[in-house]
Structures are given as C-alpha cells and as structure tokens.
Amino acid sequence: METIYTLDSLDQKIRLLEDRQDAEWCAIKDEIDEIKHNLKPLNLIRNTVEEINETVGFKSNLAQSAISIGIGYLAKRFVVGKSTSMFKGIAGSLLQLVVTNLVSKPHHDSPNERSSQQEPSRE
Question: How far apart are CA 84 and CA 80, in angstroms?
Fold first, then answer.
C-alpha cells in the first residue's frame, strides 16, 4: 500500500474504494438473487429432470414427457394420498396436470443470465 501525503489523493483513494465496495455489493446481491431463483421448488425439479435426462441420455420428447407425467403423479400422491373423496380426487388430478405442465415447459434462464448472454448490438 502506498503512502498518501495529500488530502486530494486521500479523497481520490476513498472514492475508488467506495466505488469498488459498491460494485462488490452489487455482485453479491446478484449472486443471492441467482441462488434464490435456483432454490425455488419448481426450478429444483426442472434442474433434477434435466440432470436425469443428461445422465441417462434421454434426448427424445417422449422420455421427457414420461418423466414429467411421473413427477406430476408423485405430486398428486404426496398431496392427496389415497383418498376416496371425489373433491380430493378432482383437486389431485388438477394438481397433477399443473405440475406436469410446469415441469415439461422449457427451462428459461433467469433475467440476469439472459442479459449477460445477449450479444451486443452491431450498428
């Protein structure tokens, strides 16, 4: 660290350090937002399905659809269980449909990833 002899250079150094601190805080906040996005239950399920597809080598839409339907069925079983109530059965089927559709939708990147992946405009 260099020795500072004047007030102007001290003020300049302080401003540089404050700017650096602000930039680091922004980076930390962005990282926290990304972590929160990845820890949402739907994103956890989607990431797990994508990892299973990559590991096992499922490339076809049929295999991915089967996995989505299976996850929807499991969601229905966890929430409703083995109920004889007609209302619970209908609610469980709707839940299964919603979960299956949400899991089978293509995974979209978070807003931070999308902005960093965009190409600069060429004018």
Answer: 10
